[in-house]
Design brief:
The complex is a heterotrimer of chains A (324), B (377) and C (518). Chain A is an all-alpha fold and 324 residues long. Chain A has one domain: Orthogonal Bundle (ABC transporter involved in vitamin B12 uptake, BtuC), CATH 1.10.3470. Helix content of chain A is 68%, strand content 2%. Chain A has twelve helices and four strands, in the order ααααβαβααααααββα. In chain A, strands 1-2 form a two-stranded antiparallel ribbon. A two-stranded antiparallel ribbon of chain A has the order 3-4. In chain B, strands 1-2 form a two-stranded antiparallel sheet. By secondary structure, chain C is α/β, with parallel strands linked by helices. Chain C folds into three domains: 234 residues, P-loop containing nucleotide triphosphate hydrolases (Rossmann fold, 3-Layer(aba) Sandwich), CATH 3.40.50.300; 178 residues, Rossmann fold (3-Layer(aba) Sandwich); 75 residues, no CATH class. Chain C has a six-stranded mixed sheet, with helices on both faces. A six-stranded mixed sheet of chain C has the order 16-19-20-13-21-22, sandwiched between helices. In chain C, strands 2-1-4-5 form a four-stranded antiparallel sheet, covered by helices on one side. In chain C, helix 14 runs parallel beside helix 15. The chains are: A mainly alpha (324), B mainly alpha (377), C alpha/beta (518). At the A-B interface, helix 3, helix 4, helix 10 and helix 12 of A face helix 5, helix 6, helix 11 and helix 13 of B.
Amino acid sequence: MDFVLVILASGVATGTVLLYATVGEIFSERSGVLNLGVEGMMLVGAMTAYKVTAATSDPWLGLLAAMLAAGAVSQVHAFIAITLQADQVVSGLALNFLATGLSLVLGEGLTSLRDVVPTLPSFTISLLSQIPWLGRILFTKQSVMVYVGYIFIPLAWYYINRTRPGMHLRSVGEYPAAADSLGISVFSLRYFYVFVGGMMAGLAGATISLSISPGWFAALTTAGQGWIAVGLVIFAQWNPARAAVGAYTFGALRRLVLDIQGPTTLLGFANPFFYNPYYGFFLKMLPYAFTVVVLVIGSREANRKRIGTPAALGLPYIRGQRGL
Amino acid sequence: MTQADSTKPIMGFKLPFKMKVEPRVVDPPRWYSPMLSVIAVVVALMIGALVIWLGGGEPWKVYAHIARSSFGSVGVLSDTMVKAIPLMLVGLACSFAFRMRLWNIGAEGQFFLGAFGASMIVLLPVLPEEAPKWQFIIVMALSGMLFGALWGFVPGFLKAKFNVNEIISTLMMNYIAVEWNNFFIYAVWTEGGFQMSRMFQRNAWLPRLSDFAEAIPVFRGLTTHMGLLFAIVAAIILWLVLSKSQWGYEIRLIGDNPRAAEYAGISISKNVILVMLVSGALAGLAGMSEIAGVVHRLQGAISPGYGYTGIIIAWLAKLNPLAVILVSILFGALILAGREVQPSGVPTLIQGVIMVSLIAIDFFLRNRIRITRRVEE
Amino acid sequence: MDQTNKPNEITNVVRMQGIVKRFPGVLANNQVDFELRRGEVHALLGENGAGKSTLMNVLAGLYRPDGGTVIVNDKVVNFSSPRDAINAGIGMVHQHFMLVPSQSVTENVLLGLDEPRFRMHLPRYNRKIAEIAGQYGLHVDPAAKIWQLSVGEQQRVEILKMLYRGADVLIMDEPTAVLAPSEIEELFKTLRSMTAQGKSIVFISHKLHEVMEISDRVTVLQKGVVTSACLPISSVTRADLARLMVGREVVFRVEKKHVEPGEVVLSVKDLQADNDKGLPALRGVSLDVREGEVVGLAGVAGNGQSELAETLVGLRPVLGGKVIVNQKDVTNKPVKFGIRQGVSLIPADRTQVGTAPNLSVTDNVIMKKYDQAPIGQGWMVNALEANKYAAELKEAYDIMVPTVDTSVRLLSGGNLQKVILAREISSEPKLMIAVQPTRGLDVGAIEGVQRLLLAQRADGAAILLISEELEELLSLSDRVYVIYEGGIMGEVADGDIEKIGQMMTGTRLEQIEMQGEA
């Protein structure tokens, strides 16, 4: 039983990374801008966080720098997609190359720094950790970023669905011409939410390199989690609450894949995965294969209901063009 | 209509002229688009230089080094071609899919599966060890294409049947492909515990120029292999298909407006699957030619991200199969020389900058800027 | 503003002087003057492309004029955004509603305002908006989502949006185009109640009878120039207006030769299909179209017309019933099968469905012929034949392009429609389904399209004309079916506009006839 709790607890921690990246992308897509550069922006965030923290020994400063750096990088996409009205898919791919290259160049030499760089604090919330099961999973020796994540989910949901700026955000992604006709600046809102998405991706990256698995391992730091996040947005149907479900499930799955090779017995039986190098490779495929499965589920649901997708997602806004 | 005019004062003072961005009302001349691409590359190289300079390097030395070590002699030119061959094939794979606006980002995974499919013929073995070379070449190529196509089929099918976003599914398939190959090189075909298979026997190698050195002495030591022929033939076939055939017309129509294509009675799902099959097969052939022409064994590090570079090549070539061949040679040089450039991320960065400038500059294909003198108000 | 203005005192709320607005290649407004009085309905009349909407978009702050002045309440204004215009009391109801479908009425009304400060407080605002709606007789549920509302209700939300912002001037851009006759009546009632309460209304239209009915004064535009300014409506006749609008005498009826209808070409029996949301759109439609006959399908937008057209050509699955073309069952057959039976569709949406914008004129006209000889040869498309064919069509249909290699996205609406018509008519269809074939075209182009359709009829084609323009339907059709909520309400052969109007709002023909007898 302990084993399950440990996996779930570390799954929540791993899932927090996906949570930030996914919700960030939800903000961007809700405003109508598809940004496929999440993976690259996360790398920029992870690298910046680690580099700044190594230089200043202040992980909070590292975190802030990571968010600003990834946010800044996201503006390249914003400029191309919003101002130059280029294809958002291609632009997002380009941003990925750019951001990945940037993080590799600037992250040169950081790999050997491990152990000397301080990480973000982890702690137990004494009262809540007493709750049976859940206390062990959610509130025991978790990183501060995990706790921030818990608060962040309802806030993000509330912001999008129940506030005036959230309503403006949705209108810009659904029907920019309507928003424009009422004096809402489609351009600046889109720029802003792409920036928010970038900052969140940066936050996700910093959460990896300063907390969940500290260090800089070049492109392996994120290992495709940015792409999984983009996939989760579809599964989440642009809803932060559903994104949380997806992110934590995925986190648990990723941990399971790594941790299941540890114990000798599993639920009383001999563990067939026990340090078995052969199964290991197939286990590692699971999160990626599962993403595809989740996409199938999400796409079928979206097809059936024909709702969820922001209507103007991926379309540049040109004033005076009918219907957009 | 875009009305981004600059009549508002910028930073407190007025410019002496008006700049207006307008959508084009006539098609730009034919030379305009390639010219923009060239400008984009030049701009990208300049930005790259800036980054290298900021990083404390000497940009012109780096570029001179890249040029020398990729085009400096017949020998290095041949090495450049060797790097360019897989790029040509994945570039073609991407171009073909992108023509239909089908975003196959999975050329990397299809490349790995192609390599796997080709190796299988030797390692399983499917053909007896002493089978003649021509048999090996044909069967390995077919098997590589088959496995690449299979890897392309899965996302194609999911897209056609469930409308699953192919960008994410093809990307996920890349990660799965790498683990798939790892399983075989670690667990099944490992040679003495190393993470690689045994070296293939000579008759499973693609012929190289140096094989003909006895007849033509100039070819001595040149490693350019038969994969180049595959790539050129594939490019010509693709060009014929895309610009001359009825199928190519369907692909272009779907790519430009899927609803119009449906209305003209063209099946989109059928074409999604077919195009993914062909695209996957081409990337698979790239994997096969790399394995049979260069590496001669199955191992982990067979691609420095060829599949991803293929995306940029396709874009720079404006999805024209013949242009893919030329652009690939440039990128082959970048990858070849890039191995020695420090820091190691520079080639990726330059690729990224090239792609960003390319997309940005496309703005001028759709719009033009009119500068008029400001009339005093 | 002085609020003690007596109603009989004449004050100009808006004056526009010498407005000039250019677009690439077009002079949309050339020295246009316009004025609007407090409490009047001022009609702005003109053909499509005459510059009415442009002028009002300038007033609403959407476009900045290249010249001229706008004076609101005796102050020169310089709007740089719609928000400035709204702050000055000017609101515009666009032809295409500017409403976010997934949001509620209240959310749409509040969009872009500075209130509420952060939290939405929806119940409070629902009440407030219901109150304002009641004041002007605009019946709509504030909590409903826009996509659940009818077109008429959506229009009320648009008006509500402007009233909530305290607009004194309301610009209505072709407000009746999407409404059924009874809804038009209700709209006119609302407009009168608003002018009675001191609001001013600009009524943009090209429909003469509506202008005659609702407006106090009229300004006519033609090709960007005012041909007559601020005429009191009592001083003009319908024929005067028509002449001022078009610049020549207009024939209201299209010449139609007598053609004896032949065999039944299209026979639809109890057809059922769903819309994009998965809700029933067609609930048992039955109709026939014969050779040499134009059959109209009247109805307010969104009652299943587009679904019917798509179902007939095989773009939408049939869930029940049968479609028979020339005695062949084409139900749920692929689109190509229908094309081979001689079925042709002129889609409502020229850019989204009808053409591929970045492909050349040639590529667009061969869309249904690329796989047939002589253009399709073996596996190839014969480029020479294709270009020859395109050049022939360019000549025959007078498509104005420099060369057939031009991308069609650069074509004007009228030329784009010619490309589509050329493609469809040259395939010599047995059945032609034309959806809104003249929408958004100028008068000359409309006449051309209508003449082409009638020529097809004379050649013995069966034509199903789906349109929201009643006048067009009546002048072209031999018979008219009326569709309402996915069902056929009845069929009229004598062009009885009263009956059609009643059927468009959901009364069955049998019911109307019973009432008539009673």
